[in-house]
UniProtKB/TrEMBL annotation:
A single BP term in Gene Ontology: ribosome biogenesis
Protein name as annotated: GTPase Obg
The organism of origin for this protein: Streptococcus sanguinis
E.C. number: 3.6.5.-
Compartment(s) of residence: Cytoplasm
Record-linked InterPro entries: G_OBG, GTP-bd, GTP-bd_Obg/CgtA, GTP-bd_prot_GTP1/OBG_C_sf, GTP1-OBG_CS, GTP1_OBG_dom, GTP1_OBG_dom_sf, OBG_GTPase
Keywords, in A-Z order: Cytoplasm, GTP-binding, Hydrolase, Magnesium, Metal-binding, Nucleotide-binding
Family: Belongs to the TRAFAC class OBG-HflX-like GTPase superfamily. OBG GTPase family.
Amino acid sequence: MSMFLDTAKIQVKAGNGGDGMVAFRREKYVPNGGPWGGDGGRGGNVVFVVDEGLRTLMDFRYNRHFKAQSGEKGMTKGMHGRGAEDLIVRVPQGTTVRDAETGKVLTDLVENGQEFIVARGGRGGRGNIRFATPKNPAPEISENGEPGQERELLLELKVLADVGLVGFPSVGKSTLLSVITAAKPKIGAYHFTTIVPNLGMVRTQSGESFAVADLPGLIEGASQGVGLGTQFLRHIERTRVILHVIDMSASEGRDPYEDYLAINKELESYNLRLMDRPQIIVANKMDMPDSAENLKIFKEKLAANYDEFAELPQIFPISSLTKQGLATLLDATAELLDKTSEFLLYDESEMEEEAYYGFDEEAPAFEISRDDDATWVLSGDKLEKLFNMTNFDRDEAVMKFARQLRGMGVDEALRTRGAKDGDLVRIGKFEFEFVD
């Protein structure tokens, strides 16, 4: 079984902030000591860090849940709780991170050591020392820690390669990779010998170097899931140049030009932007008897079906077996790479806007709905955060929460919707009676 894994779905949960403390200074020679409860510590973030030593997402096959530690609770003597350390999760270069709910791209991690916070820890709750006022010099109020961010993520690995080899099965892509690099892909005289992407480094005679990816063979209908489908086509998205390998000997009984059209159609069906990448046509197996004649016919068909003003792709006859024409091909590839800039993988519509961890001023502070059992249900980010950070073990904190709801207009909104004295109101799993 292949140990290559290039997609994964995981759950991440940042640490909650530590709860603030209610405490009072009681010392023999300190009259009216006052509040002395400290704040809770910050919860740990979940941070992705690129590790160039990783090659697949196999580590996420069985470990799909990542939870950072919560901050320590506040302490007496006004001491703050310790903040939790961030949870570091290592990912391979070329990992794209998406939010599973929205499908938006959060980040594209390509540089070794690059870091990105995928879930932010909650801030610590305030201790009662923070709530002292001239009117209430000894408050019995503290806050619970803010809940850490929790989300489901989709990870997608797209290998980092400058050049991608595409073509039908058994056209010689793996053999070509093994000859021009030190990579040792599996080579066999049957279709779909290559079932995982293989990567190798090329060094030309002039000293240029670039990375080449040999992608599992495409066949007609791959974009509809035939054969290996488009399972590995994502790996070609990072490449800047495509080497389109064609079996010019027609040893499989197919027409080389029809092969060329079919593969381009699959690339276009998968992603229109793949056709923006420059292609070099690699006419392979030129050591075979019929290859020269087939190449002549191929060039005629190509020229006849190209717009007269369009520039024809470069064609390089080679033989991976005899190493004929390889030096010229590699030099031309390096030259084309120098002239080709990076391609933008994602447009703005696919990227999530830079995260803002406050409240959206334009968003409603709360929403009211009615459950099937006639209970009024309150929801909304701002309201739920206030609820989660309220310490309901303290009467003063409960009264403060009630005043906050009234100040937000919740009471008036419930009356307008028809709420009556004694009706049940629910926030999350917490229920209380509406008092008119």
